[in-house]
Amino acid sequence: MSKNRKFYLEDIPLDEAWRRFIAAMESSGLWKALPGEDLPLEEALGRVTAVPVWATLSSPGYHASAMDGYAVRSMDTLGATETAPKRLRIGPDRQAEYVDTGDPLPSWADAIIQIEHTQHIDEEADEFIEIQASVAPWTAVRPMGEDMVATELVLPANRLLKPVDLGALAGCGHATVSVRRRPRVAVIPTGTELVTVEQAAQEGLKSGDIIEYNSLVLSSQVRQWGGEPTRYPIVVDDYERIRETVREAAAIHDLVLVNAGSSAGSEDFTSSIVEELGTLLVHGVAIRPGHPVVLGTVTDRKTPIIGVPGYPVSCALTGEIFVEPLLSHWLGVPSKEKPKLKATISRKLLSPMGEDEWVRVTVGRVGERTVAAPLSRGAGVITSLVRADGIVRIPRFSEGVEAGREVNVELYRDPSDIDRTIVHIGSHDLCLDMLSQYLADAGRLFSSANAGSLGGLMALRRGDAHLAASHLLDPATGEYNISYVKQYLPNIPVVLMTFLHREQGLIIAPGNPRGIQGLSDLVRDDVRYVNRQRGAGTRVLLDYHLNKLGIEPERVKGYRREEYTHLAVAVAVQSGAADCGLGIASAAHALQLDFLPFEKERYDLVIPRIYYESDLLQPLLDLIHGPVLRRVVNELPGYDTTSMGTIVV
Amino acid sequence: MSKNRKFYLEDIPLDEAWRRFIAAMESSGLWKALPGEDLPLEEALGRVTAVPVWATLSSPGYHASAMDGYAVRSMDTLGATETAPKRLRIGPDRQAEYVDTGDPLPSWADAIIQIEHTQHIDEEADEFIEIQASVAPWTAVRPMGEDMVATELVLPANRLLKPVDLGALAGCGHATVSVRRRPRVAVIPTGTELVTVEQAAQEGLKSGDIIEYNSLVLSSQVRQWGGEPTRYPIVVDDYERIRETVREAAAIHDLVLVNAGSSAGSEDFTSSIVEELGTLLVHGVAIRPGHPVVLGTVTDRKTPIIGVPGYPVSCALTGEIFVEPLLSHWLGVPSKEKPKLKATISRKLLSPMGEDEWVRVTVGRVGERTVAAPLSRGAGVITSLVRADGIVRIPRFSEGVEAGREVNVELYRDPSDIDRTIVHIGSHDLCLDMLSQYLADAGRLFSSANAGSLGGLMALRRGDAHLAASHLLDPATGEYNISYVKQYLPNIPVVLMTFLHREQGLIIAPGNPRGIQGLSDLVRDDVRYVNRQRGAGTRVLLDYHLNKLGIEPERVKGYRREEYTHLAVAVAVQSGAADCGLGIASAAHALQLDFLPFEKERYDLVIPRIYYESDLLQPLLDLIHGPVLRRVVNELPGYDTTSMGTIVV
């Protein structure tokens, strides 16, 4: 570990960074589509034509019968009517000759009579057909070249080959096609703290170990975008080793990606290596996440190199922002555009001036509104990208977006997925994950945001969600949810339906080393509590009981440390950051912690009637009323499904 | 060839056909998602999870520093201000310890101070840092499990794996993932007339030979939709051989596709084989193209089988209509939906009652309008699918659509492609294909419909196109285009710009066997002419000269046989269907025919001013004014580019 570091990155606007990068590649002749390679058609699906393709054969290659029927001379059919049918003699070079669909038109004939429009005179002798109408010349004939004429343009260059394109190429005589070579991309992960997932799965992790998966994400992106990745083994933080790996990679690849080591931290080698091996063009782009990007070219080949930031979200977005357009350009196709959608942002987004920010959002169609809900903005939270339905870009001259404003979302999903998504905002419970599993089988997607019970009711009031799970205890009545729904949703007809009952209690370390017996121990000096956020039902429950016991919240050490889920509370206990926290039995059980139960609470679903009666939610209601979900929930510790599906009000 | 055939197919509505097919698979337990197979993450991109995936490790697996900086006890920092900074002693188990981003938080610490917010007191001694502000507990710390907590749901089942999903799987400790097995699909081409494209490319084609490419299209479709195709060699029309191939294929595949042999023709074996080997469910669906589809199940395994019609367009659409939804269901994902677009249909579409019809269209954005132009409806014209931007479905209880009505288009392309498409309707010339090549390099797509010169002007009047190529001779003045533009586009400001001059003349067989010397020979009894369609500039040119020569059109044999392109006229001559036709030199040259030139005509582009000045057309104008296009056009026979780019009016 060293403190010899520079503190400052540049802050180059994205378009300026791009301009420098492209200009450097242009000057070395690398900013152009890659050359072609000949491939058999069977291997060419999804590849891009490198040159235009002209037909070498005509299709059909001869005048072909378009029907099963009889080839005739049209002039022989003149005058045939229902009342005065005509007879034509069968056999080659006579007046009628049987042909199957696709057979050549005999040279003496100029039309086909469909077999359905003919009668055999004498089935045995098979000598004549009778027709009751005349045919015009070229009837039911596919003229030579109807589909393609030799010499004609069949496919342009820069065409992404689809199945029917391959058919057309074969049909006009091409057994191979010249497609652009796949761009070769080296992906080099660096970092002494990194271990492979195979190691981790076999040997477990030590504190400080980080599973290396950025190179997996980058190489999968490269593959998805039509490139050919080389995923290098992890290189430890050693300047010379990294430099030599970069030098070797640059010699045989079109692009080098060096992951991590690109922040302004003590292990920042990439920018120095680029300076030593070539030209450093950019170090620090005014984007977020992804700020510490390095752009440059290295070695005599002037191979472009990108220093990709180490945080997983920054890494994946650097791929989308910098690598994808490069690969598309080299393949000769336009950069992939995501489907776009206008949506209402569900809460205020602050964004720093001076940086383009990419915000991950979930998107749901709630009634007439399309709502985008921001996800975690932590650059280390890869699941925020996994769960994201799309991205909202906040331009660098903006300070953010007010709640309720319209934003443009670039979708990661098919827009039709949005229409089959049930949006839940509210209290979280593991059983909602179970529910989402079964919904997937019924063709529904389930988007769930943990906003706490009260947050869920507020979301319903704003029209941001289809339903909210809630377990809000009314201290005055000891009753759950009813009074809150009346207070917060006075004008929205809702159905309040019980989902389940669940055990709440204190989650404590295994063996209960602090000897915690109940809430009254929370005032002890040696007991650190971990709390849930304001508006969470569990927080309301705590406050209710503290009040009953006459304990001032200020006396509870850790009362101000807030987590957003039961599992996060359990993790705080597991890791020793806290000694106990209030939460549900299943969270304690999941992390093999001890549990001191003290209340069985009712956990309801609040569903506006308009969605309760919608097709969208029908599969959810079916599951709640069916036996399967009930069974799997009952198998979990701390749950009671006796009232599952009971309408409260 | 045999005439033992049944004439009648069923006419089962598509939804009823589907119901029967699904019901049969349900009853044999085959209508469900396929089981999983474990794959290393590197091979799982684009595959579908077979089961939900729960985190096995937390990420981060420990409380991690989110910054480069110093780990501290937050209580030690209390009271530090700019005016009263505090000193903290450096070193493990003291008051401050240096950590890199990602390093574990030391067990005695509970916060990180970013290095930028610290000062070294004595750079040599390295004993103290000075801070000017206090930090709250957990500042700049990524708590254990911030991203994923062990036991938490990470990915649902039925998830199509994206690059970031693979990252998340690795991050929570999974080195492999259970993904649905790829559905195995046998593709069996049948037909004695079929040859492979490799044979055709090496040995050429005999009359009656047809290049087999439907199996290439079907197997590419299967691969594209996530299945694993087995492409069988061509099986000749032999009932027993086909039956045995089907039987073998059914034993080791999830689905069998038998191509061709499914019409009601004499080689119709599929339905009989299905009857013999299992259950024939459907023979003939009320769709067009694709009517003679066979659906059934075969052998004791009840393997589903589809008899796919032989015409290439019918074949490819049968894949889209029947195979894709099956594969998607087996993979546990929703059937792929194409992007949808509303458009105005450019001309009247008649459609038979009683059949769902799939009409291929090109789509262009012309000014404020989105225009869908129907392509050839011939089931043998694969290029109609290659060129199609989308499909319009005409339901079976409709007789068609009037011109100008709004239709729903299901797009084969990315909607953004439509915005970069220049729509040309009008006269065709090979040089427009050249132009489209260079436009592709400039990021523009060029959609060109051959409607003849007059058809192009009418299209501009309706607002269906951005430009129209035209070579309409005014018999009164001998001038090209000007009077027609005035007459047909009186209210649209247009730019009339010369593209090129080109040689028109009679296209005749090599060696001129009929001794044709000029238009006056067209009245001879032994000379068969092939004409262009009404409204084509070449037809106008013919009529002008016939009139000058005092020849009545009725006296020209073949005057009523109309083709839509120069190449089609040349093909008619090449194939012996006609002895001569009027057309351009390059068409005669392409097919190595003789050419009797008699007029150099001006070929202009008519461009409404509003598009002439648009960004969309700028690359086209750049090409016309640049040297490259001029050079390649000059290399073709019969062209003169002296006036390329000259504005006429």
TrEMBL record, chains A, B:
Keyword Metal-binding attached: yes
Cofactor: Mg(2+)
GO molecular function, one term: metal ion binding
Pathway: Cofactor biosynthesis; molybdopterin biosynthesis
Superkingdom of origin: Bacteria
A cellular component annotation (GO) from this entry: cytosol
Sequence ranges assigned to domain MoaB/Mog in this UniProt record: 186-329
Family matches, as Gene3D superfamilies: MoaB/Mog-like domain (3.40.980.10), MoeA, C-terminal, domain IV (2.40.340.10), Molybdopterin biosynthesis moea protein, domain 2 (3.90.105.10), Molybdopterin biosynthesis moea protein, domain 3 (2.170.190.11)
Catalytic reactions of this protein: adenylyl-molybdopterin + molybdate = Mo-molybdopterin + AMP + H(+)
Pfam families recorded: MoCF_biosynth, MoeA_C, MoeA_N, PBP_like
Biological processes, Gene Ontology terms: Mo-molybdopterin cofactor biosynthetic process
EC nos: 2.10.1.1
InterPro entries according to UniProt: MoaB/Mog-like_dom_sf, MoaB/Mog_dom, MoeA-like, MoeA_C_domain_IV, MoeA_C_domain_IV_sf, MoeA_linker/N, MoeA_linker/N_sf, PBP_domain
Keyword Magnesium: yes
Alphabetical keyword list: Magnesium, Metal-binding, Molybdenum, Molybdenum cofactor biosynthesis, Transferase
Membrane-spanning segments: none
Function description: Catalyzes the insertion of molybdate into adenylated molybdopterin with the concomitant release of AMP.
Record-stated family: Belongs to the MoeA family.
Name of the protein described by the UniProt record: Molybdopterin molybdenumtransferase
Naturally occurring in which organism (per UniProt): Syntrophus gentianae
